[in-house]
Automatic annotation (TrEMBL):
<comment type="function">
    <text>Might act as an E3 ubiquitin-protein ligase, or as part of E3 complex, which accepts ubiquitin from specific E2 ubiquitin-conjugating enzymes and then transfers it to substrates.</text>
</comment>
<feature type="coiled-coil region">
    <location>
        <begin position="366"/>
        <end position="421"/>
    </location>
</feature>
<keyword id="KW-0862">Zinc</keyword>
<keyword id="KW-0808">Transferase</keyword>
<dbReference type="Pfam" id="PF22191">
    <property type="entry name" value="IBR_1"/>
</dbReference>
<feature type="region of interest" description="Disordered">
    <location>
        <begin position="1"/>
        <end position="25"/>
    </location>
</feature>
<dbReference type="Pfam" id="PF00097">
    <property type="entry name" value="zf-C3HC4"/>
</dbReference>
<keyword id="KW-0479">Metal-binding</keyword>
<dbReference type="Pfam" id="PF01485">
    <property type="entry name" value="IBR"/>
</dbReference>
<dbReference type="GO" id="GO:0016567">
    <property type="term" value="P:protein ubiquitination"/>
</dbReference>
<keyword id="KW-0863">Zinc-finger</keyword>
<dbReference type="InterPro" id="IPR044066">
    <property type="entry name" value="TRIAD_supradom"/>
</dbReference>
<dbReference type="GO" id="GO:0061630">
    <property type="term" value="F:ubiquitin protein ligase activity"/>
</dbReference>
<dbReference type="InterPro" id="IPR017907">
    <property type="entry name" value="Znf_RING_CS"/>
</dbReference>
<keyword id="KW-0175">Coiled coil</keyword>
<dbReference type="InterPro" id="IPR013083">
    <property type="entry name" value="Znf_RING/FYVE/PHD"/>
</dbReference>
<dbReference type="GO" id="GO:0008270">
    <property type="term" value="F:zinc ion binding"/>
</dbReference>
Length: 531
């Protein structure tokens, strides 16, 4: 496949993904070929990279545009037509039935052609032999009754598929159009006489009988999408608005990170955003937790108590212990002991204390309720800690992506003019932002990793927090440097200062890349160094 038509990913050595080989003076080789920091942010001009699984294995994959998919479809149809000596329409029917697997078709066909024909609906002989009625007069032709609408038409107004069951063109058009508007099931449409007749309705009938261009376009779209959606080695890029597909050369048992030409990077296995170093199951749990009501329940348990009378949860938002439930209940009670307020007064501690609660607590009367409330509070605080930092890094990553686009569209050209350097010599700044974007993603998912790391495993947790803290430090250093230090060079010339900036930034890129590479490997290996 030509690199101009699709984005081809070649497998390479495992070590190169985190190798410490960045050379800021090499114009032709940027960080794109060097690992994690650029997966998902490649340009269309780049034609080679690698897809790495969470277990370190590598496979080839191709990003396909619409014209590539159509060419693949045409090639597959041509192969089936040539080998089996059947028409293109029949080959299309076979490929749709066998999910575009040419090898499966060949195996099944040559094992039992008759069975395949019957199953798919490609009939060699018509079920019904139609005889054109003889005209009753010199110029009159006998009319035929349609088996669907029971109106009479001339024989030329009828159509049929291989089975020979004839129906009027109007009924055929309505039948096919309804099927198209019901969804992609129209691709496997059978004769209207089905289930007694299994004959397939091919694309030729759609082209011949459907006059509505919108319906034709829908059918064509279903046909195109079937090549990806029915193919176990292909998936659509899940980015909103993206119509590119990814074709891999192996099964999807591992969790592979895929980089689309639209700049979206996703996990091949679960199609969520790329999430190394955590596995797909952890991502699924984390997403469910973020969208579930469980944390609302924890908040209620931690910050409210049930009214002793109506049992509705009530939040205490003032210092006074005197609580009044909302209408229509209006029950008045003590926040601490939950006893009726009429039994309270100065002798029981007043509005800001409760002697009854203190005495009951000494006797252990409130231990279970307090324990549950404290557990809910701790759980909520722990979740909030991890979620806020997960979300913070996600937003920082989005902002970095915007800054990168701004750099490419405006600032890089301006910097080139001021510093007298060609834009190809300034690629190291783009590389820095690409590194930041990818490292933000990794750091984001370390918080989901940390949330599910057992609190009882103190050694691993301590080691994890140390690694995470160092990663944050390296990333902040790189981010601040490229964001703040570069600004001065957009307004004034300074070749010596700019060369120092270039050298220092290259060092920070290399250091950050190496550290994050080691971090990802350590977490994917389950922090085995602690064991």
């Amino acid at each position: 496949m030509d690199s101009d038509d699709a984005y081809y990913m070649e497998s390479g050595g495992e070590d190169n993904i985190y190798s410490d080989d960045y050379n800021e003076s090499d114009d032709d080789e940027t960080l794109i070929d060097q690992g994690i920091e650029l997966q998902g942010y490649v340009e269309e001009s780049v034609d080679k990279a690698t897809m790495i699984s969470t277990h370190g294995s590598q496979i080839n994959y191709v990003v396909l545009k619409e014209e590539d998919i159509r060419r693949h479809q045409k090639d597959d149809i041509g192969r089936v037509t040539s080998v089996l000596c059947i028409s293109e329409v029949e080959a299309s029917v076979l490929l749709l039935h066998y999910h575009w697997s040419v090898s499966k078709i060949n195996d099944e066909w040559f094992a039992d052609e008759e069975r395949v024909r019957k199953t798919v609906g490609i009939l060699e002989e018509p079920v019904v032999v139609n005889v054109v009625p003889k005209p009753r007069g010199k110029f009159k032709q006998r009319r035929v009754t349609c088996g669907i609408c029971f109106d009479s038409f001339l024989p030329k107004d009828f159509a049929s598929v291989a089975c020979g069951h004839r129906f009027c063109s109007t009924c055929w058009t309505r039948y096919i159009s309804i099927a198209i508007n019901n969804g992609p099931g129209c691709l496997l449409l059978k004769c209207p006489a089905y289930p007694s007749c299994p004959a397939a309705v091919g694309r030729d009938m759609v082209e011949k009988l459907v006059s509505d261009q919108e319906d034709k376009d829908k059918y064509d779209r279903y046909f195109l999408r079937s090549y990806v959606e029915d193919n176990r080695t292909m998936k659509w890029c899940p980015a909103p608005g993206c119509e590119l597909a990814v074709d891999i050369s192996a099964g999807s048992g591992d969790s592979y990170d895929v980089s689309c030409l639209c700049l979206h990077r996703f996990c091949w296995n679960c199609t969520e955003d790329a999430h190394r170093p955590v596995d797909c199951e952890t991502v699924s749990q984390w997403i469910r937790k973020n969208s579930a009501e469980s944390e609302n329940t924890n908040w209620i348990l931690a910050n409210s108590k049930a009214c002793p009378k109506c049992k509705r949860p009530i939040e205490k938002n003032h210092g006074c212990m005197h609580m009044t439930c909302t209408p229509p209940c209006r029950h008045q009670f003590c926040w601490l002991c939950l006893g009726a307020w009429k039994d309270h007064g100065e002798s029981s501690g007043g509005n800001y204390a409760c002697n009854r609660y203190a005495a009951g607590k000494l006797k252990g009367l409130f231990d279970e309720a307090e324990r549950k409330r404290e557990m809910a509070k701790n759980s909520l605080e722990r979740y909030t800690h991890h979620y806020e930092r997960w979300e913070g890094n996600r937003k920082s990553r989005q902002k970095a992506m915007e800054d990168l686009q701004n750099l490419k569209s405006e600032k890089l050209k301006k910097l080139s003019e001021i510093q007298g350097e060609p834009e190809t010599q300034l690629v190291f700044i783009t590389d820095a932002w690409l590194q930041i974007i990818e490292c933000r993603r990794v750091l984001q998912w370390t918080y989901a990793y940390g949330y599910y790391l057992p609190e009882s495993d103190h050694d691993k947790r301590e080691f994890f927090e140390f690694l995470q803290g160092k990663a944050e430090s390296y990333l902040e250093m790189l981010h601040n440097y490229v964001e703040m230090e570069s600004e001065v060079f957009y307004t004034a010339q300074g070749p010596e200062g700019f060369m120092h900036f270039r050298s220092r930034l290259a060092d920070l890129i290399r250091t950050t890349k190496t550290y994050f590479g080691n971090l990802v490997k350590a977490l994917e290996n389950g922090l085995a160094a602690v064991e």
